[in-house]
Amino acid sequence: MSEKTKIQHLNELTGMWSRMRGNVKALDLSALHTTGAENMSRLFAGMYLLREIDMSTIRTDDATDLSEMFSGCWSLEVIDLSGVRTTRVKRMKQMFFNCKKLRALDVSSFDTAQVETMHWMFSDCESVTELNLAHFNTSQVTDMELMFSGCKSLKSLDVSSFDTACVTTMWRMFEDCRALKSLDVSSFDTARVTKMERMFSGCASLGELDVSSFDTAHVKDMERMFDGCASLTRLDLSSFAFMPEVDLEDMFKGCKALREVRVSDTILRTTCHVKNVKKEYPYRNYSGPLEYDEGGNPYIPGEGNSPSQAYYNRIMLDRDYCREVITYEHIPFARATDEQRRAYLGLHRDVKLTIVPHGSRVREGFLGRILNRK
Questions:
Q1: How many Å apart are CA 132 and CA 81, to the nearest integer?
Q2: How far apart are alpha carbons 328 and 325 in whole angstroms?
Q3: SS3 assignment, position 79
Q4: From CA 123, how far away is CA 183, in angstroms rounded?
Q5: Biggest alpha carbon distance in the chain?
Q6: What is the DSSP string of 269-286?
Q7: pTM to 2 decimals?
Q8: Do residues 177 and 151 touch, judged by C-beta distance below 8 A?
Q9: pLDDT of 246
Q10: What pLDDT was estimated at residue 5?
Q11: Alpha helix locations (H) across the chain?
Q12: How does the average pLDDT of the chain come out, rounded?
């Protein structure tokens, strides 16, 4: 910068240098005063000629949005984030997206307690070899799609302490992390997740992967979930509930070393279609899964259902209010032929398919309540 720039009490710094991003090779930020700036999204986005950014004078204490802050900084090789304060930050989406040449990334100073979205955060950081995120507080995060996608050189990644209770999408989360040999996701809470397609696709070096505690009751798409996991030899999916119209296409494609898959003896597909009902019926256009009461009677779930409301919904189903109400089926894998099982899951004949009694493996939750109902 030819002239010193001093900015005081600025609320928004988003895309500050966007017009000259393709011409800047170096930045002098020593006179840049950022106290009070809340939106710092895209601050350095697209400055693909920058090799180094000195953040020592940048104050982020008041920032709430750091989305795409360094997105598209293709040539960036060095960055010191030790002084970056993120106590108030809620958005970190695509923060380091496409920082292809960045080899080291230390985010140990980050306080992520307020962060709600991390999708694409480290996506396409092709040269980063190690990420220690053991300290990350992800209790408020709802979106982790493509978070590490394209981190081709990543050899060490610690996500064992992630709190994923609020996460609804993990689409392509670890896609193409081809150098990772170990990944601990055993503590992941996936009860709210709806999208898992390509979650581990291209993780060619993973020799083992523990997803035995995954709750997939609300997952609608598992397409190519393990596609290209060429080193995996065994998968325990006995906690998986395959819900209505779930997409399982090419789920195990490219799993060349896979020798055994464990699944529950009951694969559940429960669907409810409500049509042609009286106007006063609260869920007259509902289409989706059913819940069951303690007596095993089906009812349509609704947000904030009380026992009395659940009973009301069941009564409405029992009467002639609905002409087309319920179509549901339980596919008993224990009685299905081996050919039927493999066709449903898309498994090759060389893979051993082990059927696990649901009583010994299914956790409490949607699937457990249905399979263990009276």
A1: 14
A2: 10
A3: strand
A4: 17
A5: 79
A6: EEEEEEES--TT-TTTT-
A7: 0.78
A8: yes
A9: 78
A10: 36
A11: 307-318, 338-345, 358-361, 366-371
A12: 79
Q: In this structure, are residues 253 and 222 in contact, taking their beta carbons and an 8 Å threshold?
A: no
- Nearest-angstrom CA–CA distance, 159 and 200: 14
Q: Which of 16-25, 41-50, 147-156, 351-360 has the lowest mean pLDDT?
A: 16-25
Q: Please count the CA atoms within 13 angstroms of the CA of 194 that sit on its side-chain side.
A: 5
Q: Residue 11: is it exposed, middle or buried by C-beta count within 10 angstroms (0-12/13-18/19+)?
A: exposed
**What is the phi/psi pair of residue 66, to 5°?**
-115, 20
Q: Are 122 and 105 contacting, i.e. CB atoms less than 8 angstroms apart?
A: yes
> Shortest CA distance to 97 belongs to which of 116, 123, 64?
123
pLDDT at position 2: 38
Opening angle at CA 221, ends 273 and 153, nearest 5: 170
Domain boundaries, the chain: 167-265+333-374, 268-330
In contact, 288 and 272? CB cutoff 8 Å: yes
How far is it, in rounded angstroms, from Cα 224 to Cα 220? 13
d(Cα 146, Cα 232) in Å, to the nearest integer? Answer: 21
- 295's tokens: 């007596």
- Specify the amino acid at residue 195: K
Give the single-character DSSP code of 364.
S
Contact 247, 224 (CB under 8 A): no
Q: What are the distances in angstroms from CA 249 to CA 159, 191, 225, 290?
A: 27, 22, 9, 24
Residue 280, C-beta contacts closer than 8 angstroms, at least 6 positions apart: none
Distance separating alpha carbons of residues 144 and 156, to the nearest angstrom: 18
Contact 132, 162 (CB under 8 A): no
